[in-house]
Amino acid sequence: AAAPQAAQAPPQAASQVAAAQAAGKSPPTAAPTAAQADASRAAEAGAPEAAGGKEAEAGGDGGSSGSDDIEEMANSYFQKIYTSEQSIAEVIEMLKRFKSSSKQREQEIFACMIHNLFDEYRFFHKYPEKELRITGILFGTLIQHQLVSSITLGIALRYVLEALRKPLWQNGKMFRFGMFALEQFKGRLGEWPQYCSHMVQIEHLQVNHPELVDEIRRAMHAASKASPGSPDGGEGDAGLGPALNQGVDEAA
Asked: CA-CA distance, 135 to 149, in Å (whole number)?
């Protein structure tokens, strides 16, 4: 018998299942285009070839089936996370291998998984609690282990900041996602003092989680006493690109 749909759904389906069921129709799909997958892969893995390069070399019209295969593999890994067939730690180690792999296919799977996870952000407020927690932990662990960098890191941090700013009365799911994610990369907060300064200004965070705000302030204070730049080889606030600053300015 098939596993319950919500428990086995990968990110592109997990959020849409509940909405589709409520509307009495099948959940939609949101597969990225080959160009989107290529853009994400190029940003994260630095691979020179296009996403459909292998298929194009092999015969010209195999790009579509190749992209579908990458998408299928990416979703199968997410399914294993949500059904507890693989732990988050195991998936993180796999993603580390894929990101630095010499095999284009593995680089593309890595890029597709990152793209799909980021693309699902707008649906996190519809996730069941179990899937929300798993997704938040996975999201934050990607940041902690430097699997996203530069502009992509800026986008990831902006998503967490935006989630933490969501009013608690709006079902609280986005805020909980933000807290799950933040807990995973608190050790890196000293790299981004400007980012921290925006978090400590969140009123409901000050009221309901004063100990966390104090911890963030301590990270800011330690960063101010350190030499410029990240002690761990990170990029600091300035290295995050316009994505983080855009999110900060819009939400301020």
From this structure: 19
Alpha helices in the chain (DSSP H): 5-8, 11-23, 34-45, 53-58, 63-82, 88-99, 104-119, 129-144, 150-165, 173-185, 193-199, 203-208, 210-225, 242-251
The tokens describing 145, both together, are 């282990």
Q: Which two tokens stand for residue 185?
A: 């990369």
Output the pLDDT for position 64: 56
What is the residue-averaged pLDDT of the chain? Answer: 76
Region 192-199: what's the mean pLDDT?
94
Distance CA 78, CA 113 (A): 8
Residue 183: is its pLDDT beyond 60? yes
Percent of the chain whose predicted confidence (pLDDT) is above 70: 63
How is residue 208 written in tokens? 């309901």
Contacts for 79 with CB less than 8 Å, ≥ 6 apart: 8, 9, 10, 85
Angle at 82 between CA 91 and CA 71, to 5 degrees: 70
Backbone φ and ψ for 118, nearest 5 degrees, come out as -65, -40
> Minimal CA–CA distance to 68: which of 107, 99, 8, 108?
108
Q: What's the pLDDT score for residue 50?
A: 35
CA separation (Å) from 175 to 182, 198, 248? 10, 15, 16
Listed residue (73, 70, 59) closest to 36, CA to CA: 70
In the Cβ-directed half-sphere of 115, how many Cα atoms lie within 13 Å?
26
Do 163 and 178 contact (CB within 8 A), yes or no?
yes
pLDDT at residue 120 above 50? yes
